[in-house]
Each structure stands twice: as structure tokens, then as C-alpha cells.
């Protein structure tokens, strides 16, 4: 590792929604990362540099490619680095050089598989339906291994498909691979999920719970929450009561972005009212930013944080935010984005920092399934290291 010199070849390939870069070290080690993109972004996220010209409907990234090949390359090519903290983009190459995987080479000492939150019905800006809320997730709460939790999710997802088929609901999918039926009612959606959990042979609440990502910033206007699918216009207090009613009727253990990022008082209110009953997750409100999280902790906002590395822009800052959250007993959920790639870095990150939870979509679409498959491989490797390997990994296929 001492002699590592970045030779550099940073290749940035442009894809319509994502940016990918490759980095080579002098010893031949290699790291590659691709960055996803969101549809329901927080206003304080790191800049996503696009060309805004005629190519790719303005989404091209030639400016970013030029920045890396000219400005960044000049800074780093030929220099020596020892650790990822010295040069962030180095993380994967340095792991490869040490003959390790990313989850082994960075993060905490304790490495554990995260609990998956699987998004099986998509709404909001992730689907062309009338559902106000963006994500309806199932969360196994009783299971022996990550592989088993994943099997439970897959069985429920496919049971849901049969139920929807019988009801003549469309089983086409949304951005994160969950179904996107033409319904607008939150209740109808939650009932479908409850039925799927039971019909698949699991006990709702006891074995499998429900989590929501409301992404409420998307329908907040003039200090009101305009829920058109629900035919309701609510203020912050009424939103709180709406959630309170939902959690008494359904086994909901977690709600993400229940309030808009522009409704700070609403966030305080919901944390006071429901923070001791369920997990309240800040995504758009914190944007993985340690300074914003620090203020949120002081102000009593939420009790968990969604972690999306590209919201803050570097791995080092992402780790700072995770450690700050963990130190203050905030739960951490490592997350994908709605516009994903085949990159599986977040699977490694979740295990590396022992995040406890991961949110990486449904049990369909290769851009989601690849993260789950990587976690199966990691679990197998950790079990093998402990000498407890007891099952053969069966990889998830797209269908
Ligand atoms: P985004 O959605 O990637 O479109 O921002 C994911 C989320 O809100 O959690
Ligand atoms: Zn979110």
C-alpha cells in the first residue's frame, strides 16, 4: 500500500442518468464507481452537474467528464496516497490493492448484514399512478439470516402480484421495481400488502412489518399537504393525526419524510408525537449532510437518517454523517436512489458501517436485485469466515 501511486486514468462514461468513473493504481489495482440520480431530491443536495444542452435532453455529463480528466487528474495523477480519507475516490482501488473487499477495508470493526426494507408498491413521483406516498415497503423483523429475510420479501412480492392479477390491477412496475397499480388510496394499498404478507404465510407485525417513505416535500404547497390521491388537503397537525391513525391500524414501524423539508415545525411535532412509537426517518430534510444532521439532532428532528452518498458527494463526508448519527443513537439506513446503476457500493457500505438497515428497492429490476445479490455474497463470506456456512446461496433472478 505504501507505494501506491495513482496513475490515473479516470474514465468517466456518461450514461443518461448516471456518471461512472474508473481509477487505476500503479500496482494495477482498479476501482470503479457509478453514481445514481434521484427524482425526489432534497433542495440542499450536492450539485449534480449536467450539461443542459441539446444532448441527452440536457442530461449529458461532458462538463463533469472534462472536470475529472483535466482539473482532478492534474491534482492527483502521479501522487502517493495511503488512505481513502486522503483521496476519497481511492476507496475501491485501495481495497483491491490490499486484496480486500470494500466492506472489509472501510468502516467499523463490527460487520453485520443490514435488515432490508423492500419497496413493493411505488407511488409519488416514482410511478404514473395517483398514490400520494412514494414508497410502501415490507420489512422482515423475525428471521435468521439476510438470505432468509430476502426470501420472505420475494415470496410476499410474488404473492402480491397474484393478488393484484386477480383484482385486475396492473402489475407494471415503477422506478424502484415495486408495482405501480392505478389506485390512489393509501388504505387500499396497505390492505393489499397486508393480504400479501398473510397469504405468503407470514404474520403481519410479528414477522413482517411495513415501512413508508412519504416523500412529503413533493406535495407540500403554501403550508399545506395536498394529497390528491387521498382527496385531502391537510396542515401539519392534521398530517400527524393522519399518521397516528395509520399506525394504529397497520403494523407500520417506520415513516420516512412524513413532513416536507420546508416544514421544520411539522418535523418537531411529529417527532414529539410519534418518535417514541416508530422510526421517523429524515431523507430530504438531512440530505446526508453532517452539519444539517447536527442541527436536527439538537432540535429534536426525527430519530433516524437515510444515507445516500451522492446527496453529500463524498464517501468521507458520508462516513462522518453515519458516525455522527450512530453516536447520537439515530438509526441509519443506507439507501439507493430512484435512478440507479449496476454499482453495488451501498451493499458494501451498509455492512462496512454496520448500518442496521438498507433500502434498495423491490425484488425486481437488475439495478435493485444486484445490491441484494451482493449482500448474499457478503453474508456467505462472513459466515464462511466464522465457520458457520450453512446454506448455499441462491441468487435472485429478475423475475
Ligand atoms: P430519490 O428517491 O432517489 O428519487 O430521491 C428515493 C427516496 O426518496 O428515498
Ligand atoms: Zn426518501
From TrEMBL:
Name listed for the protein in its UniProt record: phosphopyruvate hydratase
Q: What are this entry's molecular-function GO terms?
A: magnesium ion binding; phosphopyruvate hydratase activity
Q: Where is the Enolase C-terminal TIM barrel domain?
A: 110-387
One of its GO biological process terms is: glycolytic process
Q: Hey, which pathway is this one from?
A: Carbohydrate degradation; glycolysis; pyruvate from D-glyceraldehyde 3-phosphate: step 4/5
Organism name? Reticulomyxa filosa
Any one cellular component term from GO for this entry?
Answer: phosphopyruvate hydratase complex
Compartments annotated for it: namely: Cytoplasm
The top EC class is lyase
Keyword entries, A-Z: Glycolysis, Lyase, Magnesium, Signal
Domain Enolase N-terminal residue range list: 7-106
Span of the signal peptide: 1-21
**Complete-protein stretch covered:** 3 to 401 of 487
EC nos: 4.2.1.11
Look up the record and name the cofactor or cofactors this protein needs: Mg(2+)
Tell me which domain of life the UniProt entry assigns to the organism this sequence originates from: Eukaryota
Q: What family, per the record?
A: Belongs to the enolase family.
